[in-house]
Automatic annotation (TrEMBL):
Classification via PANTHER family: PHOSPHOGLYCERATE KINASE (PTHR11406), PHOSPHOGLYCERATE KINASE 1, CHLOROPLASTIC-RELATED (PTHR11406:SF23)
Keyword Cytoplasm on entry: yes
Membership in a protein family: Belongs to the phosphoglycerate kinase family.
Protein's name in the database: Phosphoglycerate kinase
Species this chain originates from: Methanosarcina barkeri MS
Subunit structure comment from the entry: Monomer.
Compartment list: Cytoplasm
Primary location: cytoplasm
Catalysis: reaction(s): (2R)-3-phosphoglycerate + ATP = (2R)-3-phospho-glyceroyl phosphate + ADP
Keywords, sorted A to Z: ATP-binding, Cytoplasm, Glycolysis, Kinase, Nucleotide-binding, Transferase
InterPro entries linked to this entry: Phosphoglycerate_kinase, Phosphoglycerate_kinase_CS, Phosphoglycerate_kinase_N, Phosphoglycerate_kinase_sf
Taxonomic superkingdom: Archaea
Length: 413
């Protein structure tokens, strides 16, 4: 059983018999993809290898999502099965369905030691409806699949902040335990959550601004941070909340991302937690591929997209980070995929490693860390972006709560 940490008590793989069992494992293979459906980074898949290696005498079926409906990286999982085969050194068969009779027959015919990857869970409409576990347990996916298994393992920490079918549904109807990656993530993040040293600084950027803004609210409510340094799209929303004219092109960008409702939330947070949330003083605009640095009150002039934080902001934020005892970094500060706009991400990541305890999370963030060779300099690297900041905000993650509740339901004695 796991350590009693944040009040969570869940079982791990060492608490149950795995050999000869029919095991359903929720992994998170969601990876950056190019336009031809190739996987650009194997970290997410690699991170599950310890769990998969420990299941070599079980019949193993894997569930994962990839992308979100409508996005370009919303793809089938065939390439993931191929890459997992290479990395694991054992065949991971791909089934292009989730719970059809074909898929169920393939599951039934698995032998000990075989691994089967089902299709992208988000191809099923019920998956992405965030609903409570008891409702998810009645979904077609869960009803059709669960009778074929003895055990459910949730190894997908990085999606455990979503109350989706494949994350919380099976824990209602099958004995369930945490996978090795899940346990490692919780242990690493708990150290940060329980670190009461100050200053505690969060650097929050990237594109999934709604997740970050929700986390900011919870973090500040529990007094979990001395400063929140905003960057990326999160910063654009806070600038708009401060009535800074970010120009038409950036307003449109926020509108297209469906983040307009986040502006009033940001505005409330700025009032409620005065002085805690820091907004960039300058930004780098993308002027035909060139970096054009301007003070934020000059953004309106050019109608050019914001693509990074500016040098003054980098310097100012670095000062906060030099003093930090705890630093949590989530999301690039700008469009770091373009060389001209990775300065903020690179400099602040380097500065973040100086904190006594440093945590970084998120797919793109980890990419940037890899490119800088900074992996070993962080105290904990989390595969989850949204999941790690939600966890560090102190809010329970539905996937972990579901494991805890399962312990009481199935393993009382
Ligand atoms: N100002 C900006 N405008 C547009 N895109 C931005 C901006 N700042 C950052 N981005 C983009 O944000 C993306 C990464 O954001 P995201 O929130 O997905 O981070 P992450 O580290 O991958 O975390 P997660 O794993 O939660 O997705 C990058 O592709 C980057 O180009
Ligand atoms: O990349 C992630 O953070 C996880 O795979 C979760 O993906 P989501 O934000 O689309 O739910």
């Amino acid at each position: 059983m796991s350590q009693e940490t944040t009040g969570m008590n869940y079982l791990t793989m060492s608490d149950v018999v795995l050999d000869d069992k029919r095991v359903l494992v929720r992994v998170d293979f969601n990876s950056p993809m190019d336009d031809n459906g190739n996987i650009l980074d194997d970290k997410k898949i690699k991170s599950h290898l310890p769990t998969l290696q420990s299941l070599e005498h079980s019949k193993v079926v894997l569930l994962s999502h990839q992308g979100r409906p409508g996005d370009e990286d919303y793809t089938p999982l065939e390439a993931h099965a191929k890459l997992a085969t290479e990395l694991l050194g054992r065949e991971v068969t791909y089934e292009d369905d989730i719970f059809s009779s074909c898929a169920r027959n393939a599951i039934k015919s698995l032998d000990q030691g075989e691994v089967l990857l089902l299709e992208n869970t988000r191809f099923n409409a019920e998956e992405i409806m965030n609903r409570p576990p008891d409702k998810q347990a009645k979904s077609q996916m869960v009803k059709k699949l669960y009778p074929l298994f003895d055990l459910f393992i949730n190894d997908a920490f990085s999606v455990s902040h979503r109350s989706q079918c494949s994350v919380v549904g099976f824990t209602e109807v099958l004995p369930s335990v945490a996978g090795m990656l899940m346990d490692k993530e919780i242990t690493g993040l708990d150290k940060a959550l329980k670190c009461h040293e100050h200053p505690a600084i969060f650097v929050l950027g990237g594109a999934k601004a709604n997740d970050s803004i929700k986390a900011i609210s919870t973090i500040l409510k529990r007094d979990g941070a001395d400063k929140i340094l905003t960057t990326g799209v999160v910063a654009t929303i806070f600038m708009m909340a401060m009535n800074i004219d970010v120009s038409e092109v950036n307003r449109k960008f926020i509108e297209n991302k469906k983040y307009i409702d986040q502006i009033s939330i940001a505005s409330r947070l700025l009032k409620e937690y005065s002085g805690k949330i820091i907004v960039p003083q300058d930004v780098a605009l993308n002027n035909g591929g060139e970096r054009q640095e301007v003070e934020v009150d000059k953004i309106k002039k050019g109608n050019l997209p914001i693509a990074d934080i500016g040098r003054e902001t980098i310097e100012n934020y670095s000062k906060y980070l030099k003093e930090a005892k705890l630093c949590v970094f989530h999301g690039p500060t700008g469009i770091f995929e373009l060389d001209k706009f990775r300065l903020g991400t690179d400099e602040l990541l380097k500065a973040a490693t100086q904190a006594s305890y440093s945590v970084a999370g998120g797919g793109h963030t980890l990419d940037a860390i890899d490119q800088l060779g900074l992996g070993s300099k962080f105290s904990h690297i989390s595969m989850g972006g949204g999941a790690s900041i939600t966890y560090l905000s102190g809010e329970p993650l539905p996937g972990i709560t579901a494991l805890k509740n399962n312990t009481f339901r199935y393993h009382k004695g």
